[in-house]
Each structure stands twice: as structure tokens, then as C-alpha cells.
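Schema walk-through. Below, the input block comes first and the output block second. Nothing else is stored per chain. Lengths vary across the set, and this one has 389 residues.
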Amino acid sequence: MITAGMRQSTGLFISPLNTATGVGIAAISFSIAIGHLVWGLVQPLAGAMADHYGPGRVIAAGALVLATGYALTPFMTSSLGLTVTIGILMAAGAGMGSFSVLLGAAIQHLAEEKRGVASGMINAGASVGQMLFAPATQGLITIFGWVNAMWALGLVSLLTLPMARLLRGTAKVTVTPAGLAKVAVRDGGLRAAVAKALGNHSFLLLNIGFFTCGFHIAFLVTHLPVEVALCGLSPSVASWSLAIIGFANILGSLAVGWGLGRFRSKMILFWMYTSRVLLIAVYLAAPKTELTLYLFAVGIGLTWLATVPPTASLVSKLFGIRYLSTLFGLTLLSHQVGGFLGAWLGGIAVVEWGSYNSIWIADMLLASAAAIANLPIKEARLAAAPLPA
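--- output ---
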């Protein structure tokens, strides 16, 4: 909730940062785009460290790095300085307490029939954070100024430290559906697992889809406040839209977690990406009013980060759970390469052409490609539930 909620609210600082520093929207967007890329690069590294040292230590270290980034940002007056604090420190800190570490920790300690629901709950926690932090951050900026808002968020990030203590230690065993513990077998090690994944066509197709998800989300969280301004609406519409997205994704994440035990993950992903194509098309054709933005936020929010549980589920089905944190971290890296392009190209588009129309169209095309890419993934059909005695 904390690391994801804070990260999803960074776009609200673009306008005040531009006013205070004068470096330009494109330059600030680039620093945020670097942050998306760094967040992705950190995922497999943080996952590997969690697999070896345990998730608690990784999350605690990330909290300190994240707080440092928030504390130093108000002192930065150049594009390079903002890239260091927002693009590297804040992104790396948030990444060390994010999905690859948290989902890996949960899945390694839970029976198979509970993993889908648990993944949905963790994902819903990220959406709760977005729902809470977006309006809270906008309120702090309006009342106390963006500098004090940054420092307040830095203090909030330290609240993850006591929670990290609950996740100390490493998973020595895995749990079967029958509840029996078994020691992980020798499997060639992490390097062999990564090589096997990179040579697997299904894994590569999964990454193509997740790349699109990153492009889509980073574009919106970074540039939705500017899109709202271009529509002539109040800045509060942007913060409330982000909050609505977060609320809707709580429902979407829980529904997907429930659905993982009943439908194949690749089909869930296919329909989620397809729905984004249709929603963006309707948004572009509709009048740009507050109601339009809020309805769009509801529709997009239902699938927002709900792609994470089925993606993690597919990785575990393809390669097992021993190195799940690392391998899912690699898929998150592809997600954030897309995120880098979504945040960066959005800034270029609005500076060069004064609108985001070209990015919206690119987003539709990418979502179509993502939906199609998931269909050939080799995922076994779910076994039919046994009939009651």
C-alpha cells in the first residue's frame, strides 16, 4: 500500500516542480521515466536478494532509500538532480518493497490453492495505496506546498520498517496443496533458471504483454494531471481520478485473484488488454468532462494492476516457485521498459504537439498486440473440480 501508493502519485508533482525549477515538463517527465526503468531494473535484483537473504531485509533497505529520495528532491534544481532523486533513489527504494519481493514471499509460504487469492490481496493493497495517496498528496501540495508534501511522504515511507521485521528470514520449504512440506530439490541454480526462462517462448510472449501494461500505466500516472489541465478541468479531477482508479482496482484485483482458480491466466490477461483498447476508444470519442474522466477511471481501474496476479501465476506455472521472485522480477523489468517509454514519450508528445492523441493511439495498438500475444502461451487447462461425495 505504501510503496505503490506513493509511487503512483508522483505525477501530481510535475506542475509544481516545473514552476519551482523551470526545467520543463519534458525534462521532469524524463526523470520520472528513468524512475520507471530503474524500478524495473531493481525488480529481478531485489527478487534475487529476497530469494537469498529474505524479503524483510530487502524491504527495510528499500524504505531507507525511498525516504532519502523524498528528502533530497526539494533541494534539486536541475534535470540531472531530479533524475538522481526521483529517477534513481525513489524508484529503487519503491522497487525493493514491491511486487517481485512481496508476491514471491507470499507464494513461497502458501499452498497452491491459496496463492491466487493472496496475490489478488497484495495487488489490492497497492490499489488501496493509490486510492489513499493520490487525494492525500494533492491535499498536502495544496495546503502545505509541494516541498512539505515531499518531506511528509518521506516520513510515511519509513512506516514500512516495522512491517519488514515480520518478513525476516528466508523460505526454507515450500508447501504443497496437501499441506506437506518438502525441501526444494537441486535444480541447477538461479543462473540455469534464468537461462531456461529467457529461452522459453511463452515467457517471452508474456513479457510482450506486460511491456504494454507498463507503457499504459506509466503514461497515465505521469501525464493524467496534464491531460486533465488540457481538458480545462481542475487539478483535483486528476487526483480523484487516480483515487478512483485505485478503488476500482481493489475490486478488479480481488476478482482476478478469485478467477485464477477458475480460469486460465492467459485468457484473463487477453480480456483485460482487450478491454483497454475499447475503453481508450470510447474515451477519445467522448466529451472531456469530469464525468467522462471519472467513468474512464472506473473502467481502466478494474484492470489497472490486476494484470500482476495472472502474470505471476503464469510464471509460477511455467517454472515453479523456487526462483519466482527473480523470474517475476524479469517480467516486471519488461513492464518498466514500457513504463519508461510511456512516461517519456508522453512528455515529448505534449511539448511537440500540444496533446496526447498520438500516445493514446499508440496505447491502443500496443494493448491489441498484448492481447494477441497472450493467446499462444502454453498454459495447461485447469483441472475440473471434483464432484462432491
